[in-house]
Amino acid sequence: MLREKGFETDIALDGETWLEYAELGVYDLLILDVLMPKLNGYEVARRVRARHVNTPILMLTAKSALEGRVTGLDAGADYYLTKPFDVRELLACVNALLRRQGGQVEELRFGNTILDLSSATLVCGKESVRLSAREFDILRYLFGAGKKNVSK
Questions:
Q1: Per the structure, how many domains does the chain have?
Q2: Cα angle at 50 between 41 and 21, to 5 degrees?
Q3: pLDDT recorded at residue 106
Q4: Contact (CB, 8 A) for 6 and 28
Q5: 27: helix, coil or strand?
Q6: Looking at the whole model, is its pTM more than 0.70?
Q7: Are 81 and 59 in contact (CB under 8 A)?
Q8: Is there a domain that residue 3 lies in?
Q9: How many Å apart are CA 43 and CA 76, to the nearest integer?
Q10: Which burial class, exposed, middle or buried, applies to 120 when counting CB atoms under 10 A from its CB (0-12, 13-18, 19+)?
Q11: How far apart are CA 116 and CA 44, in angstroms?
Q12: What's the confidence (pLDDT) of residue 102?
């Protein structure tokens, strides 16, 4: 449904894969189910936030009890949507989280270096270079990490 509405999506079938995806720093939004194999959605959200990944998290679940919602939000989710839900509500949540997150950001800055997100160009002073897709992904990840060390 999200693809039909023009969103690019990737799917992970378990919590460990979601955690790996989140650490890439290339996603605008993570949509997690609470009940996933290997790592549940709460644990993925906790680990994502512990690693200082600020990507918005929308948690989808059939667990509608107050305790589950509180646990999800405390774990790091930005919004908690319970099943069943109307597609319009899901789209409204996705759009609200993307707006809040700053989907209109055109560039990332680190010192005097700028990564232009719309043209995949790296600019430092008066010099600029157009990046390959892989170079762009790596630099976006590094810029997102800020001053933190990142593993190979």
A1: 2
A2: 55
A3: 66
A4: no
A5: coil
A6: no
A7: yes
A8: no
A9: 9
A10: middle
A11: 30
A12: 54
Q: What pLDDT shows up at residue 112?
A: 84
d(CA 37, CA 15): 6
- The CATH number that applies at residue 79 is 3.40.50.2300
- Separation of alpha carbons 103 and 5, rounded Å: 16
- H-type alpha helices, 29-120: 41-50, 66-75, 87-101
3-state secondary structure of 11: coil
- In this structure, the dihedral spanned by the alpha carbons of residues 60, 64, 67 and 71, taken in order and rounded to 10 degrees, is 0
Q: Which residues contact 11 (CB under 8 A, 6 or more apart)?
A: none
Taking the CA atoms of residue 142, residue 26, residue 68 and residue 47 in that order, the dihedral angle to the nearest 10 degrees is -30
Neighbour tally for 134: CB within 10 Å: 8
Kindly list the strands in the beta sheet with 30-33, ordered across the sheet, starting from the edge strand earlier in the chain.
30-33, 57-61, 79-82
Residue type, 95: N
pLDDT along the chain (152 residues), means of 10: 84 90 85 91 91 87 82 90 87 84 63 81 89 83 77 79
Q: What per-residue confidence (pLDDT) applies to 104?
A: 47
Domain with 62, as residue range(s), is 15-101
